[in-house]
Specification:
about 10% strand, alpha+beta, 16 helices
């Protein structure tokens, strides 16, 4: 573990095997991202860098400290190599590029843990080690990464461990900001770096161009043989194609004959269809003649109908004349006055009958009070029994004295018993209210459980219809779910007027036929549900007029608004009684 400071022009001097090539190889690995396509490690040992396979040195050997055949300092290792760049003038932030590697004796290739670029700091060896007692070891990569991110921030740290070219392009973007950093430029930079580090100064110009500028292009005997075989195959293919050409020429003669035959066949078929068309045309002309005859008859019948309408109007006029004469006769004889007197008497008799029936009904309603004999009403019940007994069989034309006496006696004692009866009634009402509340809670839970959700405000038949439609792949919508009352003061009136329409079910237009079939098949199950026919809503797409019932609703569903316009488009809103009593429309 060491840091090497490099500033300006530097020379590396030392004895053989002192590590001079190791420093260059380390820089070569970091700058190329360890790409085996460009690496030429220990080029001096490889015959002056003429062959990339001349040296047997590898990144794995460097990591394991290989000294010779089967001589290694360690069987596995974690290695960090990094280069830091710092602008002394301070115009650009410092940049550190590097690699995190793992190597094992059992593997011929190293494992790349990271190809990272950190902007904003120059890392040193202490950033990559951890202290264990008195010894130092390479820290795990995740710990090192956390240290770097903590130092420069998540946005200034990039790791391209899977592609060396992306890593090279990334550090070019920071180190060479004015140069292009595309894929081709990154490859050119990697090749130039390796060539510069392995350059042999004892080469001729021809050797330099061949080794460092031109791509290797040796002649391969195998490829040459394959090319010759390919040429022979092409010659054989040409011979076969010529034979096929002769066969195709013969086939063309056959196809010409077939074309003439098919042309004759299609001509005959056309003649047959032409004959059929002529026959249909004659039939059509006959139908047109019959149609003209029937239309003439219809016109004659229409004229006869007009004549009959004139006779009907004359008869109506005669009826009106006779009605006026009858009215004049009634006025002279006083028949109308007598009729009005009879009507008034009948109305009085009817009111008396209604009052008597109401009176008897009110007495019969007291019958449940018989059960109060054990609650301090022992003196009250006998008077009630007498009154109920006298009421039995009473008629408006025959009212007994006993009924009148019993009614007066009971009415006189009512003032005494009324507070006590009212107190008992209040107690019973309170108990009943509690029981009803518990009953409603139980019914609500049962209804919600049966509906499978929280939409308990819908009727069971509507819920069942929606469930059947959803099971068939449709998306049903209930009117009360897709509209809202925009003016809160009209909520009560809207609920009352909509009635059962608030649970009207809508489906998409593509599903209306299938939904109608399901609704008709289960009409007994959906007795209290309704399915909207979308085909009848097209003419009601207009915007509701201000002051009408539909104008208080808002909805994103155009079908819902069209349904309300169709059903209630003529209903006017009335804020006062005078507005309500105005003619021309329902308020």
């Amino acid at each position: 573990m060491a840091d090497i400071d490099v500033t300006g022009h530097v020379g590396v001097l030392g004895e053989n095997r002192s590590g001079k090539s190791t420093i260059l190889d380390m820089a070569q690995v970091v700058l190329t991202g360890g790409s085996r396509r460009f690496l030429r490690l220990n080029a001096v040992a490889g015959d002056s860098g003429k062959s990339r396979s001349g040296s047997k040195r590898s990144v794995v050997d460097y990591c394991l400290g290989t000294l010779g055949e089967d001589q290694r300092r360690r069987d596995e290792a974690r290695t960090y190599v990094a280069l830091g760049f710092e602008d002394k003038e301070g115009d650009r932030p410092p940049v550190t590029i590097g690699m995190a590697l793992e190597a094992r004796k059992s593997d011929s290739r190293e494992t790349v843990l990271a190809l990272f670029v950190a902007v904003g700091t120059v890392l040193s060896s202490k950033d990559f080690i951890e202290q264990r007692g008195k010894s130092q070891f390479p820290a795990p990569w995740e710990d090192v990464r956390a240290r770097i991110v903590a130092a420069v921030g998540e946005g200034n740290f990039v790791n391209h461990r899977d592609r060396a070219s992306d890593y090279v392009r990334e550090y070019m973007r920071h180190l060479l900001p004015h140069s292009p950093y595309g894929e081709q430029n990154a490859s050119a930079l990697q090749k130039s770096i390796v060539n510069a580090m392995t350059l042999d100064h004892n080469q001729t110009a021809t050797q330099f161009v061949r080794n460092y500028i031109l791509e290797d292009s040796p002649i391969g005997i195998k490829e040459l043989r394959e090319s010759i075989q390919t040429y022979r195959n092409i010659s054989e293919t040409i011979r076969k194609m010529r034979l096929r050409l002769e066969a195709l020429r013969a086939l063309r003669v056959v196809l010409g004959t077939l074309e003439e035959t098919l042309e004759t066949k299609f001509r005959e078929e056309w003649i047959a269809k032409r004959g059929t068309w002529l026959a249909a045309r004659a039939t059509n002309l006959d139908f047109k003649t019959k149609r003209r005859t029937e239309m003439a008859r219809r016109d004659a019948a229409a004229k006869e109908l007009d004549f009959i309408d004139d006779d009907v109007k004359a008869i109506d006029n005669e009826i009106e004349r006779l009605t006026a004469a009858i009215a004049e006769h009634d006025a002279k004889t006083g028949r109308k006055s007598l009729q009005q007197t009879a009507d008034v008497a009948g109305q009085a008799a009817h009111r008396a009958s209604v009052d008597f029936k109401a009176r008897m009904e009110n007495i019969r309603r007291l019958e449940p009070l018989r059960a109060m004999c054990a609650d301090g009403f022992e003196d009250f019940v006998p008077a009630l029994e007498r009154l109920l007994t006298a009421t039995a069989g009473a008629e408006i034309g025959h009212v007994s004295d006993e009924l009148s006496a019993a009614e007066k006696s009971f009415a006189a004692s009512g003032t005494k018993w009324l507070p006590k009866i009212d107190e008992a009634r209040q107690t019973i009402i309170a108990e009943l209210s509690g029981l009803r509340g518990r009953r409603d809670e139980v019914l609500e839970r049962i209804r919600q459980h049966a509906a499978g959700g929280a939409r308990a405000y819908l009727g069971d038949d509507t819920e069942l219809l929606c469930r059947r439609l959803r099971q068939s792949g449709m998306a049903p919508r209930v009117l009360c779910d897709i509209i809202e009352v925009a003016e809160p003061e009209w909520v009560g009136a809207a609920e009352a007027l909509l009635g059962r329409d608030r649970e009207a079910v809508f489906v998409d237009r593509a599903d209306i036929s299938a939904a109608t079939s399901i609704f008709k098949e289960g009409r007994r199950e959906f007795r209290h549900a309704s399915l909207v026919s979308l085909n009848k809503l097209e003419q009601f797409r207009a915007k509701p007029e201000r002051g009408t019932f539909p104008s208080i609703f808002r909805s994103q569903d155009p079908d819902a608004m069209a349904f309300i316009m169709r059903r209630y488009g003529t209903v006017r809103l009335a804020d006062t009684l005078d507005q309500f009593n105005r003619p021309a429309g329902l308020s």
